[in-house]
């Protein structure tokens, strides 16, 4: 955490998430956990993104975070957080 | 044996190398079996004509997941060389979006490993496919 | 759909066509998945160095059995085009003795059909392999 | 059957069987069934071929005959009978 108690994280958007945000990535100051990031994102992008988030997983520094661990996942400065909508490669 | 096992993981924005090239990379004089899987873009989905497809990926994480999946396959089966290629770009109908090739001394191992690799790739690898129809486009996965 | 399904069965005394050629023969714009299996001659068997291999077959019956096996696979799985090539001659180490390729709309079908085809070919198709070692030769199957 | 009560059949040898006979095919007059052919073959080629036959199947006109049906399988003139040792293709 920073002196002001928040962490500066980069958030990456892909596929359906990026269609809503219109950008590939941006930086947020997050008070504590992934749960806080969800609040920040839905405040900024509204219901549309919240529906995507409901069906997405976060990946922090390229590791998936299980859905029920989001509120316990504390973010650090410079973490790279990606929103991973349901994948469809192959 | 395991130190000599080769792994080829690569994401392409250009057309994928040929199946021959892929199978030659995994071939070895001590591996009697080579199993491959190619996924090619189809011209229809549930009756709708697909005009084109586009793949997007979280490249570094996709490669990391593929390496993980390959390690898991190596734990499960006695396989030799493994190749996973995926295309991340627009892919014209009929062209390959993914190629998997595995060699092994005995055939069951290569075939089961290929099946595992494509199943896990489809389940876990951060890659997304967008299908374009006459009446719009849709990201697969989210809207199925 | 089923009337347009193609079957390629052929026995070769020359080197087999490439995997690319095989996969292009079974490819179609409506089949998203192509699964292949290649059996290549190995340089060892239970620790013994294999110098060369020779395949012999009861050609007309081998083709008949392959056609039967392919019909069985078509009954079991929704597959599109099927190719089975087998070489009947001396086969240098590292070259393909058998190539199987199957296309289907969905990946499981092609993969399971390929596995069935190679399993049944090995169990029922009247083809025999002779392995040559430094200290002699042996027809596989009979003496294993 | 022919007037003399026997059928003229062509017998094909492959792999280990041909190593013993030294030829790819020959013609026999067989009184009745595949069982009779086995007697004729073992009389001509001895124990060595009998061991192969024990582990082989016959194919009559390119159809396998199950082991326990051999004595009941009556041969006709011009039948093509193949000895199929355990196969090892692939």
TrEMBL record, chains A, D:
MF terms in GO: nucleotide binding
Matching Pfam families: ThiS
InterPro entries on file: Beta-grasp_dom_sf, MoaD_arc-typ, MOCS2A, Mopterin_synth/thiamin_S_b, ThiS/MoaD-like
Record keywords, A-Z: Molybdenum cofactor biosynthesis, Nucleotide-binding
One BP annotation, GO: Mo-molybdopterin cofactor biosynthetic process
Pathway where this protein functions: Cofactor biosynthesis; molybdopterin biosynthesis
GO cellular component, one term: molybdopterin adenylyltransferase complex
Domain of life: Eukaryota
PANTHER family, sorted: MOLYBDOPTERIN SYNTHASE SULFUR CARRIER SUBUNIT (PTHR33359:SF1)
Protein name according to UniProt: MOCS2A
Naturally occurring in which organism (per UniProt): Umbelopsis ramanniana AG
Taxon lineage: Eukaryota, Fungi, Fungi incertae sedis, Mucoromycota, Mucoromycotina
């Amino acid at each position: 955490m920073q002196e002001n108690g928040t962490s500066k994280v980069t958030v990456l958007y892909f596929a359906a998430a990026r269609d809503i945000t219109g950008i590939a990535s941006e930086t947020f100051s997050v008070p504590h956990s992934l749960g806080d990031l969800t609040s920040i994102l839905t405040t900024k992008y509204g219901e549309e993104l919240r529906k995507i988030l409901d069906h997405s997983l976060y990946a922090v520094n390229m590791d998936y975070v299980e859905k029920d661990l989001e509120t316990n996942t504390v973010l650090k400065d410079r973490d790279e957080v990606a929103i991973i909508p349901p994948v469809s490669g192959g | 044996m395991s130190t000599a096992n080769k792994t080829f993981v690569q994401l392409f924005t250009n057309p994928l190398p040929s199946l021959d090239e892929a199978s030659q990379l995994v071939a070895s004089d001590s591996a009697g079996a080579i199993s491959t899987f190619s996924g090619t873009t189809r011209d229809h989905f549930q009756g709708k004509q697909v005009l084109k497809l586009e793949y997007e990926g979280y490249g570094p994480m996709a490669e990391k997941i593929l390496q993980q999946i390959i390690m898991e396959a190596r734990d499960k089966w006695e396989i030799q060389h493994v190749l996973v290629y995926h295309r991340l770009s627009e892919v014209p109908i009929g062209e390959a979006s993914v190629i998997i090739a595995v060699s092994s001394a005995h055939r069951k191992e290569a075939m089961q490993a290929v099946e595992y690799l494509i199943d896990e790739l489809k389940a876990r690898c951060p890659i997304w496919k967008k299908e374009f129809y006459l009446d719009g486009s849709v990201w697969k996965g989210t809207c199925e």
